[in-house]
Design brief:
- The complex is a heterodimer of chains A (about 850) and B (about 120).
- Chain A is α+β, with helices and mostly antiparallel strands and about 850 residues long.
- In chain A, helix 7 packs across helix 11, helix 14 packs across helix 15 and helix 17 packs antiparallel against helix 18.
- In chain A, strand 18 and strand 19 form a beta hairpin.
- The radius of gyration of chain A is 31 Å and the shape is globular.
- Chain A has 28 helices and 32 strands.
- The two termini of chain A are about 55 Å apart.
- An 11-stranded mixed sheet of chain A has the order 1-32-2-3-7-8-9-10-18-19-23. In chain A, strands 4, 5, 24, 28, 29, 30 and 31 form a 7-stranded antiparallel sheet that branches.
- Helices cover about 80% and strands about 0% of the residues of chain B.
- In chain B, helix 2 runs antiparallel to helix 3, helix 2 packs parallel to helix 5 and helix 4 crosses helix 5.
- The two termini of chain B are about 25 Å apart.
- The chains are: A alpha+beta (about 850), B mainly alpha (about 120).
- Chains A and B meet through helix 1, helix 3, helix 4, helix 5 and helix 6 of A and helix 1, helix 3, helix 4 and helix 5 of B.
């Protein structure tokens, strides 16, 4: 049967066609047209093959178009995913019904009748809103990014597998007793994540990025959670400082390197724990020695490896604030606490805000998607926040090898055989890559050129930090809080504390590695004499409780004075301390403080370094010949309040001057001595030196670099000022009043998948790297990732983070919190019951 | 009449298939049109329109239920087209159209070789 009207037409029509003069026998027509159908078929096959290929298979950066753009199961499901309404959901594994309240801004409240259900529901909620982010984070730590992103991610995967986050996580999981509450929490959490994966797959509502990249998430395991904990530890504590110093030492010599990269900070610091300290018999740190050619070669190899890694994998400069104020200095009569951890600012954010309520947990704050607990927040009695303690947690060792002992290294008087671990790295669009990781007693070998370099890293110590965190969230007073932190290992953090009885405290919990002998600021001999021998006793680590001053603060500064007997690190592991000094200045001022003052200090833009240096600069310029533009710039500095505000032109002059001053002082050294390390990598330390010399040693030899002749600080300042004004005039125009900071400085919240059009900004922003409102660099991509202010006297809890609860860019919760955060405002942190009474909430009933 | 029934049936099957996640249904329907409707211009046209409708109507359904504006803008951003939300919409409809069109076209082309019209 055919339905073609031409074929079904009456016979006369066909006959008529045959009878026309032009008509020819069928056989002849077939021969003449034989070429066209073949051509047509060839074209059809080629086009069809191309269409089917593009539809079924990914091609280069393009996903398989069919499943990706299918209107009902492809990326378009982002629209349905963005809708959050009242629902009743069935989750396998739940023991009792769970209520989830979602505020109109996305803040989530989980109310469960058992602890198991609390963590299961938390896993479900995290995965519902952040599954792609969670998958990226575990892939990063497990060295599986290449599997979905191809060979571009291979270097990162190799490094992570070398470093060993996965090995550590596997060890931690195997060592965790089955009866431990965190064991149960990890399993329940994984179940909740897997419930969401199953639901999303069955309803075709996996995050669109999975569809577009073209893969399905595998099942979640407790090890994945532990790997994500490792990711954070790595970002906050894996530090390449000794490698940099070794390379600088080779170029500048031991003498200058020792002076410019000292053990103790040269500048003024504001330690929160002034002592007295316990006595300790510790080995003195050895003086700086010259680095050999072979050592320099191995340092260069390690530097090459570490420099090739994407930004954010290694610890760079520290930047977090927290402080607490006692009732004696509080307008409300209760203790105050403020915290703003500074991390890379991404969309989605590293944080997910929630409250958790179950028989044994009543906690509110922010959690990291992929992990079951609240990291920063408060419960009914205590509040806490964190800053990075910054102590040295990464030690590099040069292994002694010999051709007569292949695959061995000399340690503790005998030849030891390297352990080897083999990994197969799947690569999207490429062949499987085999990686062999060599492990010495110190840790993984990360570079094999010159001398073999291995690394001891605190993050590789198996530790049950999640269990610690759960106990912290249950603590009701300082003793329980402090006892819980006794087992916290890495990364070391300054945990600030306040409670509902008016107590405040600060403790730098974690592992503080001590070595037998050597110079840990450089790579050390791997033969045993410089090994890590243990940590500082818990009672001797930096800490303070209810100090007479009535306040405590940390901002990555040195926690202690030079009298402290234990080794913490060299000065360049720590922050220069300008934020800490500014916070200390504000908190120590006479008068009482309110929660509003806490919020204002979190967004304080006063540059402490500028307040020290600008008066000196003005003095130097007083004897200088200035042109009208320079005079105008100088006058603006003279009347400036040192605040890095968007509309401040003086702020631009200061910032440009300081960059110019650094360059004027150090670039001639870098050039004449051919230093292999980028100066920008060590600017924080050089800035401390420059600050110190400018204020107290203006004829330091550093100002008289080879080729510039004999100079003092004031000469360099004047030259730098002239250059700075010239730079500003060239880039921003001839009117100094128009050189506003907002024209030079912006902030960007970067999309986690590096889709620039899904990022926020760049947008003009106040602050700089030295201000409590941290915003370093011309376009700042890191800063206050969460702000929290707690006032126990008024009973108010407030918080905000830049971003939104959902990773779905089509969701109203993708960037809805940004404006509030940008304006320096805070949202109330409500309890589940308070939230349920507000308008616009959605409620999920989770049932078995 | 039978032609109309065939067209409607094909469209319903194609749309149902897409709604159920079988996004390739328009190609199959295109093949069916190519087999059943022997006049190439007609069958290929039907395949193309069928493919277009099979992807367009579910997309319209999503638009009515959820609103696709932010999603289209997000997809455009992910694909590197800024916030030009029209581009992913056009691309989506193009995929559906081409699936139906090629299904019908390749079938007609084979049919022309295997069953010459004038024979």
């Amino acid at each position: 049967m055919t339905l073609d009207p031409a074929v079904e037409a009456p016979a006369p029509k066909q006959k008529a066609r045959v009878k026309t003069p032009a008509a020819r026998p069928a056989r002849v027509v077939w021969r003449r047209r034989r070429g066209r159908p073949l051509l047509n078929l060839a074209a059809a096959l080629i086009v069809t093959a191309a269409v089917l290929y593009a539809a079924f298979l990914p091609a280069g950066p393009l996903p398989a178009l069919g499943p990706a753009f299918n209107p009902t199961t492809g990326a378009w499901t982002m629209a349905a995913d963005a809708q959050v309404t009242d629902r009743t959901l069935r989750l396998p594994g739940l023991q009792q019904p769970v209520r989830v309240v979602l505020e109109s801004n996305g803040t989530t409240h989980v109310v469960a009748q058992t602890d198991h259900d609390l963590f299961l529901a938390t896993g479900y909620v995290h995965a519902r809103f952040r599954l792609f982010q969670m998958d990226l984070m575990r892939r990063q730590g497990e060295g599986r990014l290449s599997e979905v992103f191809g060979k571009a991610a291979l270097d990162t995967d190799r490094f992570e597998l070398q470093l060993g986050l996965l090995r550590t996580a596997q060890l931690e999981w195997s060592q965790l007793p089955v009866g431990d509450p965190s064991h149960a929490a990890l399993l329940a959490y994984a179940q909740g994540v897997n419930d969401r994966i199953a639901e999303a797959e069955s309803t075709h509502q996996l995050d669109a990025m999975f569809t577009l990249v073209g893969y399905q998430p595998k099942q979640w395991t407790p090890i994945d959670t532990l790997v994500i904990k490792g990711d954070m530890t790595q970002t906050l504590s894996f530090d390449d400082t000794p490698i940099l110093v070794a390379l600088i030492n080779k170029s500048l010599g031991a003498d200058l390197t020792s002076e410019w990269f000292p053990v103790l900070p040269p500048n003024r610091q504001s330690p929160y724990d002034p002592g007295p300290y316990p006595k300790a018999a510790t080995a003195p740190i050895e003086t700086m020695r010259a680095v050999s050619d072979a050592e320099a070669q191995s340092a260069a190899a390690a530097y090459e490896v570490l420099e090739s890694l994407p930004k954010g994998l290694l610890k760079t400069e520290g930047a977090s604030n927290n402080w607490a104020v006692a009732p004696s200095k509080s307008t409300s009569g209760g203790a105050l606490l403020a915290g703003d951890p500074h991390l890379d600012l991404t969309l989605p954010s590293i944080w997910f805000q929630l409250t958790q309520d179950s028989p044994n947990f009543h906690v509110a704050g922010v959690s990291i998607p992929g992990t079951p607990g609240v990291l920063i927040g408060h419960n009914q009695h205590i509040a806490w926040s964190l800053t990075d303690a910054m102590n040295q947690q990464t030690f590099f060792y040069l292994e002694k090898q010999d051709a007569a002992h292949p695959n061995q290294y000399f340690w503790n008087g005998a030849w030891q055989t390297y352990k080897k671990v083999e990994y197969d790295i799947p690569v999207a669009g490429g062949a499987m890559q085999r990686l062999t990781v060599k492990l010495s007693v110190h840790g993984p070998v990360i570079a094999d050129r010159g001398l073999t370099t291995s690394v001891w890293w605190g993050g590789n110590l198996p530790s049950q930090d999640l269990g610690v965190l759960l106990r912290v969230t249950q603590a009701t007073d300082w003793k329980e809080f402090r006892d819980a932190l006794r087992d916290w290992h890495s990364p070391t953090h300054n945990f600030v504390y306040s409670d509902d009885r008016g107590n405040i405290g600060l403790i730098s919990a974690g592992y503080f590695p001590q070595i037998a002998k050597g110079r840990p600021g450089l790579p050390m001999a791997g033969t045993g004499e410089s090994d890590v021998t243990g940590t500082i006793p818990y009672d001797a680590i930096p800490q303070s409780y209810d100090p007479p001053s009535g306040f405590l603060w940390s901002a990555n500064q040195w926690q202690v004075t030079p009298d402290y007997p234990y080794y913490l690190g060299t000065a360049n592991f720590y922050d220069p301390g300008y934020r800490a000094n500014e916070i200390h200045r504000v908190l120590s001022a006479p008068g009482k403080l309110s929660a509003a003052d806490m919020a204002a200090l979190q967004t304080d833009t006063r540059d402490f370094l500028a307040s020290e240096i600008v008066p000196v600069l003005l003095q130097s310029l007083s004897s200088d010949q200035l042109n009208p533009t320079e005079s105008a710039a100088r006058d603006m500095l003279a009347s400036w309040d040192y605040r890095m505000e968007i509309n401040s032109a003086a702020a631009s002059v200061w910032w440009t001057f300081w960059q110019s001053y650094l360059g004027e002082t150090f670039d001639p050294w870098w050039k004449s001595r051919a230093v292999k390390v980028k100066r920008a990598d060590v600017n924080a330390m050089l800035g401390q030196d420059l600050e110190f010399w400018t204020l107290t040693d203006p004829v330091n030899r550093a100002f008289s670099a080879p080729g510039v002749g004999s100079r003092a600080a004031s000469d360099a300042e004047r030259t730098a000022f002239h250059k700075a004004v010239f730079t500003l005039r060239t880039s921003l125009g001839s009117s100094p009043r128009s050189w506003t900071w907002g024209r030079m400085h912006a902030r960007e919240l970067t999309n986690l998948a590096l889709v620039s059009d899904l990022s926020y900004g760049p947008r003009a922003e106040r602050g700089d790297g030295n201000t409590p409102l941290a915003a370093g660099g011309r376009i700042s991509t890191a800063g206050p990732s969460w702000r929290m202010v707690v006032d126990w006297g008024a009973g108010t809890f407030q918080g905000i983070y830049p971003g939104g609860q959902s990773e779905n860019p089509a969701s109203g919760w993708y960037t809805n919190l940004v404006e509030t955060w940008w304006d320096g405002r805070l949202d109330p942190m409500l309890s589940a019951d308070q939230a349920a009474a507000t308008s616009g909430v959605a409620t999920w009933k989770l049932q078995q | 009449m039978r032609l109309l029934v065939t067209i409607v049936t094909g469209l319903v099957v194609a749309i149902a298939g897409v709604l159920l996640g079988a996004w390739w249904t328009p190609f199959v329907i295109g093949v069916a049109f190519g087999l059943v409707v022997t006049r190439p211009v007609v069958s290929i046209g039907l395949g193309a329109v069928g493919g277009l409708l099979a992807w367009l109507l579910p997309l319209l359904g999503e638009e009515v239920r959820y609103g696709l504006g932010p999603t289209a803008a997000s997809l455009a951003a992910i694909m590197g087209f800024g916030h030009e939300g029209a581009i992913p919409v056009v691309l989506t409809l193009l995929v559906g159209t081409l699936l139906g069109l090629t299904g019908a076209w390749v079938t007609c082309a084979v049919r022309q070789i295997a069953v010459p019209k004038t024979r």
